[in-house]
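Give me the fold.
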Amino acid sequence: MSRLLAAPARRAPVFLVALMLPSLAYPQDKESNAGAVDTEHIFGFTEGSDIGEKGEKEVDHSSYIFTGKQGGYVAILNETDFRYGVDNGFRASLNLLTDYHGVYDSPGIPNRAAFAFSGLGSELDWALLERDKAPFGLTLSFIPQWRRLDDTSGARQESFGFPVQLLADVALSPNQWFGAVNITYAPTFIHTPGTWTTSQPVEISAATSFAISSDIFIGGEMRHLTQNQLGFFTEHALFVGPSVYLKLAENTNVKLAWSAQIPDETTQRLDLVNYQRHQLRLQFAMGF
């Protein structure tokens, strides 16, 4: 069984390259692509490059559910965002963070069952390339955050994070089949009594999403996570899983994504000390 799970892990680089170079195999009809599909939410944990137009407003809520560490463990990290299109090609957001942790006999983590306000954040998005004017869409995001709780244990811990994301996507088939790649670098400064420490997580994800109707997309993605807290490329894990996106109304949608950890392509094993076995994302978004 471990060999069966390891096989897709070894193919991760091939999967990433295949999604990064799709335009070579699928010529684009740019006029038919223009404005037809908003790709921001159609993937799973991966984000599309669309950020809307000047004056557009959106409220969305995402719950990230983490389970499957040793012992009894569940963490639900909630993020509620208000987004506003300041100008064509630039959007700003304010983020409210709340967490729930239910921990029982998980090694190295104190028992806890609590829901609490965990921090505040912001997000600034710049659309560098538009899909209808270039071979692919490309957006740069800066997402500063202040957190008052450790997101793994729920214990009191102040941290300041400065994630930077590069979001790229492409239409593999006009208005129907899309691929995306995200690269996230998230330097974080952590304050504990008497000292400061740093971590530099990196996440690379590749996703695809296919329209089975005008209102429903199904897809899959692969994500490689690295903490880099004890050195470069340390504490890393590989996740794969499906996603589904449903458009409820013209400006309202919901999506569900599930990622399961599989043996990493270098270690050929799971890391359940630094990561969870399962990660889920449930998102509801409404524009107005």
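The longest helix spans residues 2-10.
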